[in-house]
């Protein structure tokens, strides 16, 4: 039976799924290191929750713990992808896993923000190392099947672009919502202190995020809107197949390097606002709102340009433009422009060029997966998106580690050289991503 075209209501529901996991992921990426190792600032009652011990003179303990969690996440993704590809269930290959994971994601994310000791302690390190394993396992259990659905649901003309746009809108909305957690925390009693306020705010946001993740899992009928699929290759054979495709290797490496730069910059966002510009962390969500609006306004032009200009050229352009934007972080607080205008300009420029990379790469993976399915007769969308996630998360892991290393060279007001270097390094990584992506042959994946 021919699968049906996904109606608008379910396309919107699909976008709510990524909003939920983007909310959770961005709470972790922007707030966790800030909460456990805050900058010296008289405006907050937050204090260090972990020792500032360094290893090999460059790695502090929080960087190693966070990196180990992302490394576990990256390594488990291909296994989850193969499991999803080969799943034989009456509800389909993706939906059953997506129904299981959201409440566990919310639980473990909340637990990461509940340190057992409310002061500097090695016990907090052990707690975080343990809890994040559960978080990243269930996170992958949802995200890999969810992303694989893009290729399978987008079987009609322009379907993949519509689904990828829905994803990008949801993701950016999640970024914005996550940036408002510190503001939401202020609505809890002030006598609780900043740490307890944050804990309750994170818990409330996670419950909402889990509800959003469950929406597509119960609204979209996979058997109705996806073609019947076949995948029988064991995990290591499937991995070899994916990595044997040159286009996928080029894409995945460039994508991973880009996500290294994004992790580097996103880890520093609250530091840039507070330590470099002397502004309140509670207002961060307002500037993220500027970025969200800019990104949303760019989605229509991106969809129009994709029909006229090759995706390869647009992606290389976006990498190159963001390298200039990230380089500008070095000068924050040093130029004769009001701090608010500096942040607004940064958010507008980032939102403009990141909109290309929010939509186009997912369609590239879907194109590669679809071309391989036609060649081999094996539908391994989950493995391709899982391998993309592996490279992304390896990049994110290194990005977080690099940022935490750079904080050793200054992360406080008046002593912020490490923060400024993070912008320079992010710029260099974007240039590298653009150079690597030149090797992508777009014609190989036209089906």
Explain this structure to me?
This protein has 16 helices and two strands. The chain has a two-stranded antiparallel ribbon. The model has no long low-confidence stretch (mean pLDDT 84). By secondary structure, it is an all-alpha fold. A hairpin with a 3-residue loop joins β1 (54-55) and β2 (59-60).
Relevant terms:
two-stranded antiparallel ribbon, Growth Hormone, Chain: A, 447 residues, single chain, 16 helices, 2 strands, mainly alpha, globular
| Corresponding CATH architecture | Up-down Bundle
What is the ordering of alpha helices and beta strands? HEEHHHHHHHHHHHHHHH
CATH superfamily: MFS general substrate transporter like domains
Mean pLDDT: 84
Largest sheet entry: 2 strands, antiparallel
What is the CATH T-level topology?
Growth Hormone, Chain: A
What distance lies between the first and last C-alpha atoms, to the nearest angstrom? 21 Å
Q: Overall 3D geometry?
A: globular
């Amino acid at each position: 039976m021919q699968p049906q075209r996904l109606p608008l209501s379910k396309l919107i529901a699909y976008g709510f799924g990524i909003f939920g996991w983007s909310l959770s992921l961005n709470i972790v990426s922007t707030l966790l290191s800030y909460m456990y190792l805050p900058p010296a600032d008289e405006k907050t009652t937050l204090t260090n929750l972990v020792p500032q011990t360094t290893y090999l003179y460059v790695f502090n303990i929080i960087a190693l713990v966070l990196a180990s969690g992302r490394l576990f996440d990256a390594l488990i993704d291909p296994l989850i992808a193969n499991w999803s590809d080969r799943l034989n269930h009456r509800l389909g290959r993706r939906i059953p896993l997506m129904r299981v994971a959201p409440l566990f994601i919310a639980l473990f994310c909340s637990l990461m923000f509940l340190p057992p000791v409310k002061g500097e302690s090695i016990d907090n390190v052990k707690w975080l190392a343990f809890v994040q394993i559960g978080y990243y396992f269930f996170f992958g259990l949802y995200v890999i099947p969810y992303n694989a659905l893009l290729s399978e649901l987008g079987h009609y003309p322009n379907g993949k672009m519509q689904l990828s746009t829905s994803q990008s809108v949801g993701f950016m909305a999640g970024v914005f919502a996550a940036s408002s957690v510190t503001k939401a925390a202020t609505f809890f009693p002030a006598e609780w202190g900043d740490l307890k306020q944050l804990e309750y705010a994170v818990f409330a946001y996670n419950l909402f995020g889990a509800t959003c993740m469950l929406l597509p899992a119960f609204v979209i009928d996979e058997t109705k809107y996806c073609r019947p699929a076949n995948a029988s290759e064991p995990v290591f054979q499937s991995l070899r197949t994916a990595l044997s495709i040159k286009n996928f290797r080029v894409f995945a490496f460039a994508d991973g390097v880009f996500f290294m730069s994004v992790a580097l910059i996103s880890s520093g966002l609250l530091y840039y606002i507070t330590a470099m510009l002397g502004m309140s962390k509670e207002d961060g969500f307002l500037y993220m709102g500027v970025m969200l609006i800019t990104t949303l306004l760019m989605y229509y032009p991106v969809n129009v340009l994709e029909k006229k200009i090759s995706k390869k050229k647009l992606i290389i352009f976006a990498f190159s433009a963001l390298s200039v934007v990230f380089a500008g972080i070095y000068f924050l607080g040093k130029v004769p422009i009001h701090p608010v205008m500096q942040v607004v300009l940064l958010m507008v420029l980032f939102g403009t060029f990141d909109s290309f990379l929010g939509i186009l790469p997912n369609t590239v993976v879907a194109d590669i997966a679809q071309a391989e399915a036609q060649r081999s007769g094996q539908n391994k969308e989950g493995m391709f998106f899982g391998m993309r996630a592996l490279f992304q998360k390896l990049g994110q892991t290194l990005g977080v580690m690099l940022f935490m290393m750079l904080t050793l060279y200054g992360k406080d007001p008046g002593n912020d050289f490490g923060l400024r270097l993070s912008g320079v390094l992010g710029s260099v990584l974007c240039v590298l991503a653009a150079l690597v992506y030149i090797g992508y042959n777009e014609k190989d994946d036209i089906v």
